[in-house]
Amino acid sequence: MGCGRYRIDLEPRAGEAKPGTMLVHIKMRGRAPAGCVSPDFDHPGERCGRISVALCDEPLRHSAGTCSAPICERHRTKIGPDRDLCPRHVSERLPLEDATT
Ligand SMILES: [Zn+2]
Ligand SMILES: [Zn+2]
Fold first, then answer.
1. How much distance in Å is there from the Cα of 41 to the middle of ligand 1?
2. Which residues have CB less than 5 Å away from ligand 2 (the ion)?
3. Residues 22-38: what's their mean pLDDT?
4. pTM, full prediction
5. What is the 3 state secondary structure string of 54-72?
6. Nearest ligand, measured from the Cα of 69
């Protein structure tokens, strides 16, 4: 406990369109934040793995509690003060919002 593997973004180098990413082993005091479980933007099929900054607040239909998927800064969608959604639940909500337009 207290450490984990996380993906970090690297500065894009001259001539490279996309910034690279790197998996790093980080040691921390106390409880380490979970790694983001959403699919990575640049590496299809791989888990994002960036350090989570929020948890999904979408209520679950079939059980008490919330989705609670760890979400990183890039994957989070703020829907209110201290309320965030994971990409999966953002996409599930989108059709509802489109229906009003
Ligand atoms: Zn992420
Ligand atoms: Zn969610």
1. 8
2. 56, 58, 67, 69, 86, 89
3. 88
4. 0.76
5. EECCCECCCCCCECCCEEE
6. 2
